[in-house]
Amino acid sequence: MSLNKYVVGLTGGIASGKTTVANLFAEYGIDLVDADIIAREVVSIGSDGLKAIEQHFGQSLLLTDGSLDRSALRAQVFDNPQQRLWLNNLLHPMIRQKMLDQVQASTSSYVIMVVPLLFENHLDSLVDTTLVVDIAPELQISRTMQRDGVSKQQVEHILASQMTREQRLAKADNIIDNQGEYELLRSQVLRLHQQYLQHAADLETNVND
Ligand code: ATP
């Protein structure tokens, strides 16, 4: 990475526990850069992203308060690869730049970048190491159904749109097993935190040499 900062890419399938794990790192004072939050910011009211979408698709994509009608946008790009490509070409560079800006602005020893589709969107090129939160698909289904009140079929649909568990694990530098009780996460996070602090210190030494 060109930034003088050690960056950990945290990922995992739907409801694997990314947010839960990220918040444990935050308890140690580590800054989080959250791709989902940034993805919303780049199309917020008054943003260049929203203006470009309005120009391209028209005003029907806006709600009465001027914000983006996300479901209308989804309908526009669903089953339309050309429009989806246009949208991705617009938003992905903006999201990428904002993530790098936030890494640069961070003052913690290292940074955790939380990116649900880290590998799918090739954002692993932005990070120094990858950390996958892992649970079995059956648990992903039950935890999502419980959290979001959605049907099994809806979760299965989302699962099918993401990388498989095996593909994700094959790409991971480190793995956190989140199939047990919450308490079991804490020790795994602490061990990794100590490891990342060491890598960050090594990076600093190399930079200053
Ligand atoms: P998404 O991909 O949908 O953004 P996520 O990967 O960030 O989800 P979380 O929101 O952290 O996942 O966790 C998903 C759900 O599972 C939440 O309701 C959370 O409270 C619950 N959960 C997380 N870890 C555990 C655990 N070890 N035991 C039981 N429930 C858990």
Short description, anyone?
The protein is an alpha/beta fold and 209 residues long. It has helices at 18-27, 35-41, 48-57, 70-77, 81-105, 137-148, 152-161, 165-171, 183-208; strands spanning 6-11, 31-34, 110-114, 129-134, 174-177.
Distance between the termini: 17 Å
Q: Provide the spatial order of strands within the biggest beta sheet.
A: 2-3-1-4-5
Number of domains: 2
Low-confidence stretches: none
Q: What is the CATH H-level superfamily of the largest domain? A: P-loop containing nucleotide triphosphate hydrolases
Give the % helix. Answer: 55-70%
**SS field, number of helical segments:** 9
Structural class: alpha/beta
- Number of DSSP strands? 5
**What's the Cα radius of gyration?**
18 Å
The unique ligands bound to this protein are: adenosine-5'-triphosphate
Shape, per Cα inertia axes: globular
CATH class call of the largest domain: Alpha Beta
In round numbers, the mean pLDDT is 94
CATH topology of the largest domain: Rossmann fold
Write down the secondary-structure element order. Answer: EHEHHHHEEHHHEH
Written overview of the protein:
GO terms for molecular function: ATP binding; dephospho-CoA kinase activity. InterPro entries: Depp_CoAkinase, P-loop_NTPase. A 5-stranded parallel β-sheet has the order 2-3-1-4-5, with helices on both faces. The two termini are 17 Å apart. The protein is built from 9 helices and 5 strands. The chain has 209 residues and is α/β, with parallel strands linked by helices. Bound molecules: adenosine-5'-triphosphate. Adenosine-5'-triphosphate is lined by residues 12, 14-20, 116, 143, 147, 178, 181-182. Residues 12, 14-20, 116, 143, 147, 178, 181-182 line the site of adenosine-5'-triphosphate.
